[in-house]
């Protein structure tokens, strides 16, 4: 059995190109053909220069060569490299006379149209609306503040993406109760800073406001 000289840079370049779309030398599993080539490459190749060979070499290294099926002669039948070719990379090596470098204008046009259509569909796809549940607290000036009137004024604030929910009065101390109200907000539409500013504008009722808790829906 005579295999190409894998110490030859041009042979390694051709083998690198060969492994671009293959996992093994022959077929879809490791065989004696892989073992035969592995024996010719004594050490792991430079992964930066020959990434496909390096990947293949590390993989074949994990096998017990004696247990691999097939015949080593298969390697010679498959790998017919030109050892006189100059090693220069993929553009200078053509193992099987491939016409992959030839461009079909019509195929390229159809491909471009499909990419354009895909991008258009992707752009139209609605984004998921991000929402948060917020526990919002409003503190009155004192125990003489009309809490119901304060709550009505707070709930009268309208913002796109804001939904007022359940509420209750929570004791603060010294006979003062604060309004605790649950709201649901669309994150992209509602600024909590702006909401607090608008609540603070209710100067007849509101001393301060606070965000007690916030959780994403």
Automatic annotation (TrEMBL):
Residues 95-122 form the Elongation factor 1 beta central acidic region eukaryote domain. Signal peptide: none annotated. GO terms for cellular component: cytosol; eukaryotic translation elongation factor 1 complex. SMART domains: EF-1_beta_acid (SM01182), EF1_GNE (SM00888). One of its GO terms (molecular function) is guanyl-nucleotide exchange factor activity. CDD domains: EF1B (cd00292). Residues 131-217 form the Translation elongation factor EF1B beta/delta subunit guanine nucleotide exchange domain. InterPro entries: Arc1-like_N, eEF-1beta-like_sf, EF-1_beta_acid_region_euk, EF1B_bsu/dsu, EF1B_bsu/dsu_GNE, Glutathione-S-Trfase_C_sf, Transl_elong_EF1B/ribsomal_bS6, Transl_elong_EF1B_B/D_CS. It holds the Pfam family EF1_GNE. Residues 185-212 form a coiled coil. Keywords: Coiled coil, Elongation factor, Protein biosynthesis. Belongs to the EF-1-beta/EF-1-delta family. This is Translation elongation factor 1 beta.
């Amino acid at each position: 059995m005579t295999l190409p000289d894998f110490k030859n840079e041009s042979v390694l370049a051709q083998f690198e190109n060969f492994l671009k779309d293959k996992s093994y030398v022959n077929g879809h599993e490791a065989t004696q053909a892989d073992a035969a080539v592995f024996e010719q490459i004594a050490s792991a190749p430079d992964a930066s220069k020959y990434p496909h060979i390096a990947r293949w070499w590390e993989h074949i290294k994990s096998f017990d060569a004696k247990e691999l099926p097939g015949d080593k002669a298969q390697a010679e039948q498959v790998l017919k490299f030109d050892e006189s070719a100059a090693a220069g990379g993929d553009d200078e090596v053509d193992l099987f006379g491939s016409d992959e470098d030839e461009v079909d204008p019509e195929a390229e046009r159809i491909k471009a149209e499909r990419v354009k259509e895909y991008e258009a569909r992707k752009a139209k796809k609605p984004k998921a609306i991000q929402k948060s549940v917020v526990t919002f607290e409003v503190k009155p000036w004192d125990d003489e503040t009309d809490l119901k009137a304060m709550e009505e004024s707070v709930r009268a604030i309208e913002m796109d993406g804001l939904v007022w929910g359940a509420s209750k009065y929570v004791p603060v101390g010294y006979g003062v109760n604060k309004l605790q109200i649950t709201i649901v907000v669309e994150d992209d539409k509602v600024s909590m800073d702006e909401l607090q500013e608008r609540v603070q504008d209710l100067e007849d009722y509101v001393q301060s406001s606070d965000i007690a808790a916030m959780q994403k829906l």
